[in-house]
Amino acid sequence: MDQDIQEILFTPAEIAAANQKLGQQLARDYHGKNPLFVCVLKGAILFLTDLVRQIPESVEIDFMDVSSYHGKTTSSGEVKILKDLDVSVAGRDVVFVEDIIDTGKTLKALMDLFASRKAKSVKIVSLVDKPAHREQVVQADYIGLTCPDKFIVGYGMDYQENYRNLPYIGVLKSEVYL
């Protein structure tokens, strides 16, 4: 897999430092509130796992599986819920955990959905923000790292279900996906 990477943008140490910083901020902001952390599968699972280990209090987690890329390198704009939550968000403080905010289309659709489900509050934590590619007005409340407008993989992020298990975040060589 390493041979398919053009450059490493974020090392394992940089990712760990971002997780620690975000976890400490969330621990302070949600002290005594028992928030519901909602992870978007599959890309955010590694981030969620490392993030919640930084929080010294009880938190609840649940998962959604949504698709908007459908095997491509750009979002189709069509958001499909493949797996919905197992618990209600009504009256809950929800922390939405994303691996990357790219176009913002998926996140905007899910934020609208959670509002209609009467969540008490919804905040977004994203490991990576890619603002240059934004098409919807969506702003994360907590951001770990900011990346340029490049196609990245690793640490949960994939291309056609590959590269998720890289311990770093890197730019995929264009010849791999063009």
From TrEMBL:
EC number(s) given by UniProt: 2.4.2.8
Keyword Transferase: yes
Main location: cytoplasm
Record-linked SUPFAM superfamilies: PRTase-like
Keyword Repeat: no
CC cofactor: Mg(2+)
Alphabetized CDD domains for the sequence: PRTases_typeI
One GO location term (cellular component): cytosol
GO molecular function, one term: nucleotide binding
GO biological process terms, semicolon-separated: GMP salvage; guanine salvage; hypoxanthine metabolic process; IMP salvage; purine ribonucleoside salvage
Family (UniProt): Belongs to the purine/pyrimidine phosphoribosyltransferase family.
Name of the protein in its database record: Hypoxanthine phosphoribosyltransferase
Originating gene: hpt
